[in-house]
Amino acid sequence: MTPSYEVYALKYAERDTTKSQFFFREASGDPLTLHFYVWVILGGPHPVVLDTGFSAEDAKRREARNYVSPAEMLRRVGVKAEEAPLVLISHLHWDHWDGYQLFPGATFWVQQEEMAFWTAFAGQYANYRQFAEAEALADLVRLNYKGKVRLVQGEVGVLPGISAHWIGGHTAGLQVVSVETARGPVVLTSDASHFYRNIERRDPVQIITSLPQMLRGFDRIDELAGASRLVVTGHDPEVAKRFDQVEPGIIKIA
Ligand SMILES: [Zn+2]
Questions:
Q1: Which is nearest to 106 in space by CA: 78, 79, 87?
Q2: How far is the CA of 93 from the centre of ligand 1 (A)?
């Protein structure tokens, strides 16, 4: 029998940007606030964390506000980041990977295409370089040589009732995560859909490696979510309204 999982979105920082950055060919410079999250799945033999967040140094360098360490947010739901054995990485942008040092006991699950793209091709072009930190990627290579990275491809089972699915689009090997819960399947989209507007209006972000993949990814997320529609987008402050915010920054999805 599949365990009954609980899923939390943990908000650890905020940053102001503009609509033109996050919607396709959107001209508006109207303000838009990003919330930064890590996600955790409880109820199995051990917690499963999705993404590492970023470090306090990144918060300064990239002008994020209200930063609380993702490790502290995890502690508030009873998870010790330093002991977490399994961390899924949706993609290798700085805000999803640079917090890896908070998880010294983890094996990191990354799509093979994602690792290849960011450790080689992306460094050739300023367009992509700005979204990652070379030092954090160098450490990913080191962790791989220490046996602490599991390269996955396509669709992969994580634990019974938890699976990761290659989507691509926003980055070459972006993966989303699907979790069976008592309320139905929950889909953690990460940046396959930053905001609900992206997926609900089929209005993709401009930061992409493949627009067709991004568009197909919306269809795949809808398929995975099915009728229960428990879709948790990657940076939308509205997650706290659509689901149950039990404490500031701690949002219970199911
Ligand atoms: Zn992001």
A1: 87
A2: 7
